[in-house]
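Figure S7 source data.
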Amino acid sequence: MRTAVVDWARELYEDLDFTAVHRWLAEHPGAKAGGYLPVYVPREILHACGFLPVGIHGGGDRLEIIRGDAFYQSYICHLPRSVIELAQSGRLSMLSAVLFPSTCDVIRNLSGMWKLLYPDVYVRYIDVPQVSQPEAAVAFYETELRHLVNDLGAVSGHAPSDDDLRKSIALYNEMRAVVRELYQTRRERPWDLPTEELYLLLRAGEVAPVEEFIDQARRYLAAVDADRRRPRDNSRVVIGGAFCEQPPLGLIKSIERAGCYVVDDDFVLGTRFLTSEVPLDGDPLEALARAFVYTETRTSVLYERDPQRKRRLMQERVQAAGAEGVIFAAPSFCDPALLDQPMLRNGAEAAGLPCIAFKYSENSGQFQQFREQAGTFADSLKLWAGGPA
Ligand code: SF4
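Tokens for the predicted iron/sulfur cluster complex:
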């Protein structure tokens, strides 16, 4: 059963033609598909308005960039180029709406390009609150969400009631719960739940209907429980920085095969962005806004109220995951990741945590250097076990 679920997930991950989305649209006459860029959007709202939410993560190492390079200078990350390539090749033409969360200036610019290139598609740049007063942030974000519901309802022809929104929130609460269980299981038994498989599942959850994802993830957890494996003498690491442009699968496999158990990471972070259950009583949009503002997730794309928090962050994550070291793996030219990295690394090293860092691009094709670096790091963690001098 494990293989069947992983095969299902791999097929969705590899399919840059979004065949499953087209199939879903054919099976749901009148329904729409709505895309979203990383890192986080409230998918509940797309779902409640009758859209199939579709995560857009670029083409990874499976897409040759022909048209995309014409839209961007060379010294930025790879993601927008490959997203434009997907769009210009017609692969995203089934999307009636595309949401661009305020992750960084690159995503903001991409939203402007979309408006110019595809005037028939509903495009929204979702501003998130970056202020020091949480209650002001809740009020602001709730208003943003109300605009979003009104607009998406107009596009789909289905303005959701509060109960529709609550039903969608309940489903995504369930999704987040199952993802938390996947992460917890991997933390406890990383030899049973390889990150390669977990990552494929998360990526499948970006395009599969939420109900189908929950079902497959539960089947996978049951299969993992029934298929216990022997632990190896690997080192336990946290991978930080890969929250937007995703590393190629080969990079994740290389790190694992080099002797690292990944026990915490930032991959496909939107799936775990809200850390608490969104309440189903009261106003659903206020509940979503509150869950966003008060999330425990700490990431470079969010305003950080406590200036010392970034220095403590990696130590907190390492402790929570029972890890021995940190691998900073960020996309090349990623401002949010790379501007924070010195602060995060400085705090980690001050706490005595061994760290290494490398940069990747979603289309990196050579993994030997990553494998050697991660392998040496894994060995050194074992050699230094008991604490560095
Ligand atoms: S990889 Fe970094 S710079 Fe590029 S779009 Fe994502 S957050 Fe922005």
